[in-house]
Design goal:
Blueprint (H helix, E strand, L loop, with lengths): L1 H8 L7 H14 L1 E6 L5 E4 L12 H7 L4 E5 L4 E8 L9 E8 L1 H51 L13 H51 L5 H33 L7 E4 H18 L3 E6 L4 E4 L1 H17 L6 E8 L3 E8 L6 H4 L11 H6 L6 H11 L3 E7 L3 E9 L3
Parallel strand pairs: 7-9
Antiparallel strand pairs: 1-2, 1-5, 3-4, 4-5, 6-8, 9-10, 10-12, 11-12
Helix pairs in contact: 5-6, 6-11, 7-8, 8-11
Bound molecules: adenosine-5'-diphosphate.
Length: 415
């Protein structure tokens, strides 16, 4: 403001006492020194009154006389310097320079303290940030390490262990999925063991019968020929049974192996079902069972004919096996634009509601004695379910005890 007044009043060429007083006041107020030079570096005002008229040459004054304002701090001497050019409004010629210089130790010390405090705060914040970063890394990695240790333990064969790790959402989800996977593996292992024990048991039963029959023949010294014939006939039956179990098992295993390797061709479903019914005719005649096929039209579908024939045979044979004397088996074919439906309806012994969900399990039989008498192995429907599943089809069963059973097979026309 003062420089402005000096410019307006043309102080350099025309000094006035009013401005001098103000310059003195500033000098006293800040406890510093105020100087004014003309464009030729000659001091025209000095608040100390000692240098007036002398020439003062310095880099700062030269720069200021070129029109630049300068603010400078001398940190060693604790000085603050301010230089501003005096530029009258009507011309762009610089008429002089106003130089204010004062000692500011107190202010600069305060500034230094602030700087130190700021540095300290920055250090504390950085340390806290790093500690937080380390802590969150530990929080993330620690549960994963725990999962890894659990998995290594499980890999050693401790399949009944579970992974129980509490951590963030992702870690909890990993440990949940791992546990689900483990429970599936355990279930699979249990079913494998059950299957092996079932197989051993089923294979052993005919063996035991044969051994008993053979031993009783051997024990009697004078066994009549008729008894030999009868017992050998029984032994032969047991061999057939053993054979049937083994061939059913082989079918099941080969299906497991060749899963997704169906050899599908466009096949007449009517023709295929007719062949099945022709094959089971002798069995039906033995029991005086009427087998009828009804079809609304000729149906073609892309299927693996030989496999599908096994599946349908098993259902139709069961419909005859678990039927009453003079009963019936009705086979109905139908199709819409996507699926073919094969209905096998019998007037047989039926089964309870709770049995239905089990009949597709390997070796499951509602009535073991009856199944054995009819030459059943308990594998037929397991084979059927596997084949229909490979064809992306479904089997639905409805049944009423002592009234009959209906199997509905649904297969896609184009696999
Ligand atoms: P199995 O060789 O004993 O016939 P399956 O797997 O073919 O074995 O059938 C399993 C069981 O389901 C049979 O033992 C029987 O108890 C029951 N079952 C299957 N089909 C019928 C049916 N049409 N009527 C009544 N029970 C049936």
């Amino acid at each position: 403001m003062l420089a402005n007044q000096m410019e307006v009043t043309g102080y350099i060429s025309n000094p006035n006492s009013n401005i001098d007083i103000q310059l003195d006041t500033i000098s006293e107020l800040y406890g510093g020194r105020v100087l004014v030079t003309n464009p030729y570096h000659v001091i025209v005002y000095d608040s100390f009154g000692t240098e007036k008229g002398k020439t003062l040459v310095s880099r700062n004054i030269s720069t200021c006389l070129k029109g630049e304002e300068i603010f400078e701090i001398d940190w060693d001497g604790d000085f603050v310097k301010y230089l501003t050019p005096l530029l009258p409004t009507e011309s762009d010629r610089i008429t002089g320079a106003l130089i204010v210089q004062f000692h500011a130790k107190k202010e600069l010390d305060r500034y230094r303290t602030y700087q130190k405090e700021l540095l300290l705060y920055a250090l504390i914040v950085s340390a806290l940030f790093l500690a937080g970063l380390g802590l969150s890394a530990w929080w993330l990695v620690h549960p994963i390490k725990k999962i890894e240790r659990s998995m290594q333990h499980i890999a050693l064969g401790f399949l009944n262990d579970t992974v129980s790790v509490n951590g963030n959402r992702e870690v909890a989800s990993i440990s949940r999925s791992t546990n689900e996977m483990l429970s599936k593996i355990n279930k699979l292992e249990a079913s494998r063991q059950e299957f092996v024990s079932n197989v051993s048991h089923e294979l052993k039963t005919p063996m035991t019968s044969m051994k008993v029959l053979a031993e009783s023949l051997l024990m009697q010294p004078d066994t009549p020929v008729e008894l030999y014939r009868e017992f050998l006939g029984d032994i032969n039956e047991q061999i057939e049974r053993e054979n049937k179990i083994i061939s059913d098992l082989l079918t099941l295993i080969s299906l497991d192996k060749s899963a997704n390797r169906l050899q599908c061709e466009r096949t007449s479903i009517n023709g295929m079902v007719e062949t099945v019914l022709k094959r089971v005719k002798p069995l039906a005649e033995q029991k005086n069972i009427e087998v009828v096929m009804e079809s609304f039209r000729e149906i073609y579908a892309r299927v693996d004919e030989s496999k599908l024939m096994i599946a349908i045979s098993n259902i139709v044979e069961n419909a005859i096996k678990y039927n009453r004397e003079f009963g019936y088996v009705h086979v109905t074919l139908n199709a819409d634009w996507r699926y073919v439906y094969i209905l096998v309806e019998d007037s047989g012994i039926g089964m309870a509601e709770e049995e239905i969900s089990h009949i597709f399990e390997r070796f499951y039989r509602v009535d073991k004695t009856r199944s054995r008498e009819t030459g059943g192995t308990g594998l037929g429907l397991a084979i059927t379910a596997e084949i229909i599943g490979q064809h992306k089809g479904t089997v639905r069963v409805s049944s009423k005890e002592k009234e009959g059973t209906t199997f509905i097979i649904r297969l896609p026309l184009n696999l």
